[in-house]
Amino acid sequence: MILWIASYPKxxxxxxxxLLSAYYSSENGVFxxxxxxxxxxxxxxxxxxxxxxxxxDVTDTTRFWIKAQEKINEDKKLRFFKTHNIFDAVNNHKFxxxxxxxxxxxxxxxxxxxxTSLKNHYEMSYEESLKWMTNSKKFIYDVENxxxxxxxxxxxxxxxxxxxxxxxxxxxxxxxxxxxEDLLKETYVVFKEIIEFTNKILNIKKKIDRNKxxxxxx
Length: 218
Known about the structure:
This protein is an alpha/beta fold. Helices cover about 40% and strands about 15% of the residues. It has a 5-stranded parallel sheet with strand order 2-3-1-6-9, sandwiched between helices. It has a two-stranded antiparallel sheet with strand order 4-5. A two-stranded antiparallel sheet has the order 7-8. Strand 2, helix 2 and strand 3 form a beta-alpha-beta unit. Helix 1 packs across helix 9 and helix 3 packs across helix 4.
């Protein structure tokens, strides 16, 4: 089963992944860059190698979103995946469902700060950034890999508001919504809540390691 780490772009997804990977993939909770790979992204090209899709068609992999997740879940292992995709369908193809998803941790950031982060990351003006994050038809993909991999990592993110609401209002899977600002201000407290939620969803009976929580934020 998959536990999603979802967010709109530039909302702290990578930071949350680093905290979770440090806690669940290390002995002492101390983060190192090598363990970040334990939490990959969905979708990526590697998830569709068994399927016949048109890599030059921007949305064609949406036909295999569910089938790819079913294949991932064949070994019945529990996995974290990051995504910026909305919890909805594209061309009537659902992004995920309760059969393949255990739950989601959604990190939401003040949109005023998202605008600034988008501006700096993509070297846009504030006006362009605002237009970017209010575009209900917005999608992203790895521009540098298009020639080699096509649009296999296409993600439909829609607008900031739609993205957030899509995960918040859905009733298929349990979701823990956290504010980036709260995680920043009270890292230990909020991250402990995330671990409690995660352990419950994944049926992990092991007692919470408070030292690992402290170490993961160093």
